[in-house]
Amino acid sequence: MTTRDDCLRLDRDDPLARLRDHFIVPDGVIYLDGNSLGVLPRATSARVQQVVQEEWGRGLIRSWNTAGWIHLPQRIGDKIGALIGARPGETMVADATSVNLYKALSAALTVAAHGGRDLRGTKIVSERSNFPTDLYIADSIAQQHGMTLELIEADDLPGALDADVAVLMLTHVNYRTGRMHDMAAVTHAAHAAGALVVWDLAHSAGAVPVDLNGADADFAVGCGYKYLNGGPGAPAFVWAHPRHTARMDDAQLRQPLSGWLGHAAPFEFTPEYRPGSGISRFVCGTPPVISLAALEAGVDVFAAAGPLGGIAALRTKSIALTDLFIRLVEASPVAPQFTLVTPRDSSIRGSQASFAHAEAGYAIMQALIARGVIGDFRAPDLLRFGFTPLYTRHVDVFDAVRHLVEVMESGEWKDARFHARAAVT
Amino acid sequence: MTTRDDCLRLDRDDPLARLRDHFIVPDGVIYLDGNSLGVLPRATSARVQQVVQEEWGRGLIRSWNTAGWIHLPQRIGDKIGALIGARPGETMVADATSVNLYKALSAALTVAAHGGRDLRGTKIVSERSNFPTDLYIADSIAQQHGMTLELIEADDLPGALDADVAVLMLTHVNYRTGRMHDMAAVTHAAHAAGALVVWDLAHSAGAVPVDLNGADADFAVGCGYKYLNGGPGAPAFVWAHPRHTARMDDAQLRQPLSGWLGHAAPFEFTPEYRPGSGISRFVCGTPPVISLAALEAGVDVFAAAGPLGGIAALRTKSIALTDLFIRLVEASPVAPQFTLVTPRDSSIRGSQASFAHAEAGYAIMQALIARGVIGDFRAPDLLRFGFTPLYTRHVDVFDAVRHLVEVMESGEWKDARFHARAAVT
Fold first, then answer.
1. Per-residue pLDDT tens for B360-414?
2. Which residue among the candidates A31, A175, A225, A418 is catalytic per the annotation?
């Protein structure tokens, strides 16, 4: 079995180890929650200060031009695009993931209806265990269009893709189980059934290789504050295949959040909306400059990873870390108390491992957090551990499992203070 | 006529003058564009750093609870609410103004349809010279519901309020002319005609007294980066009268951006959307914490203004500054070249003055900006000057007019460099 010394050796020999220097991981913390909120990059603080003090403070309104603020949604969008198989100009950073999903789903339905298809009675299909916000947004849109939202299990695919499906909306990597869809195969099956596919990359972008164009995907959205390390509530991104955005030059085809910065010429201040070209019409309101600066600092770390092998190398390390964690837990004396719900097969797994504990998942996680081992809990029973290869070491994985064993063997999770539910779990 | 010494004396005797110390106005700049992007408050930089370095950097995911991140949308919403006649718990900070307008207009239509009214063929009415994003969003929603968007002139009110009007959507203070509607009277007239009213407070919140409850308004949205000094692209806010949000406890009544953080219990992660109580359902995605921190620092300056008379005292000063500017321009040798488009009557005016110059408005503004007098230009012909009483001095007004006269008399605005259009005007 792998020893702690083995892990130290693996870290010493790891060519990606130096990427950890790009982050500020607090002393005494083993952070396995980068799938919820990424760690603070070392460059972020100065970048944000520069934007606040210099660009805003001194430049004031002039900085929309002189500091290039107006270009941030596309500039950062392109940097994210490079991580997800998008070409330059195809990705925009804007708003929150939920808002972008609303735009993308709405736009997908416009495309679906383009050939004269009557959407009433057709379906949006998604996974029952998809992240709830995706389901809430999809349900809202389905109601608007007289459609139904049908929730299935991942195993029901591709069988559930009947002729009534207008849009299939999936999160590439499931937030609970970490199970990952085969994007190209699912997209192909959906297209064969006459459906479009909207992908949520919240747990994929920056974590696993994604090739939106290679998979022939239709629309995608994703999150800036998880594996992209953009900071709490960072702006999200949205992508659409050029075959759709080109088609959408027809003014009849719109996403409904037609805000002024998605206009072809916002500073003409015309009363009629004229959508910008390509993906630019998916921008809505004024870009959140300070948040964008933080996000860009997070995304820029991936540029440093490029010469070390980029996403492919990060993926290899992520699989190694996750495999190691699963192996160590299952070889530990507490193994019988936990059930792995994440696929053992790394080819269908994101960058996390989730274990179910029927009675006390919440309290066990709280006890771990009190020890500085930070994962999270997802009701009703999941302990979720994310492995961000940018800053997680093999020895962190080893120590985290040791803490888990100690928490269980000592019974310290039974302490009442670990059972009081916080507002955010 | 008022002399520069008079202005210095007015500033010396101004009890609000010390509020300028809460801001960092760059040396050599006379900033008359706080109606577009407010000046950096002195406290913002440290506040943002604290959130980035301590709350995010050290607290990481735990800060959602320990630093109260989850409460920011309501906490800051309540602080803004105090400036606009909202009671605690009625206002939320979220998303961009355009996005919030989409929610508010959609919700208003749900309310309008509640009694069984068929919305098809009915109208959303707004002003032709309303800020374009408002019109784009309203048009999008009107199309969704088989309604029409009818654009009128301000003078057409209240006559345009016929029985077919479902919603009247107005910006309280016009972004071009600075003309201000009588919120209570217009709301009353709209209600009498069977219409609901959605107010955009982008140029009102923090600039003029607003009493949403006193005016019996229905819905309101507003902007964080203008008079609230929240920073470029700061999050916006949304308000709804409790008679509507109470009614909306009926799950049939929704705003369509039903994201997870508007759910009654987001961390139960249930697949079905159950809207939160009151205004909380107008939150959609994960709150943008870093931007919210900057916004809160901006809004907190108004607390310091409270003991000095608050919004009422600020309004008195704003009127004095704007009157002074108009008077000095019109008494100057260049007066014949400019036409005032802002109401002379301060009771129907916001906190700005706009002058039209038929041929060269853009170049004149560029020449002023080159001298450090920063206003902005709105196509096709408006020079727009905003007077933020928190940090603008009487002597700034005097000097700005002197620069305007010099720019015109010297002819320096004819220089080619002032005619090249920037991306953002």
1. 999 999 999 999 999 999 999 999 999 999 999 999 999 999 999 999 999 999 9
2. A225
Residue pLDDT, tens place only, A254-305? 799 999 999 999 998 998 999 999 999 999 999 999 999 999 999 999 999 9
Taking the C-alpha atoms of residue A200 and residue A222, their distance in angstroms, rounded to an integer, is 6
| β-sheet bridge partners, residue B180 | B173
Q: What is the pTM of this model?
A: 0.97
Looking at residue B116, what is its pLDDT? 83
Distance (Å) from the alpha carbon of A273 to chain B's nearest alpha carbon = 5
Tokens of B100: 């919030």
Cα gap A154→A157, rounded to integer Å: 6
Neighbours of B262 (CB within 10 A): 28
Burial class (CB in 10 A: 0-12, 13-18, 19+), A213: middle
Of the options 3.40.630.30, 3.60.15.10, 3.40.640.10, 3.40.50.720, the CATH number for the domain spanning B49-299: 3.40.640.10
Å between A303 CA and nearest CA of chain B? 21
ipTM above 0.90, yes or no: yes
What are the tens digits of pLDDT across the range B180-219? 999 999 999 999 999 999 999 999 999 999 999 999 999 9
**How many interchain CB pairs under 8 A, A with B?**
281
Contact criterion met (CB < 8 Å) for B137 and A29: no
Told to judge if A134 belongs to the known catalytic residues of this protein, a careful annotator would answer no
CATH number of A48-299: 3.40.640.10
**A4-31+311-418 fold:** Aspartate Aminotransferase, domain 1 (3.90.1150)
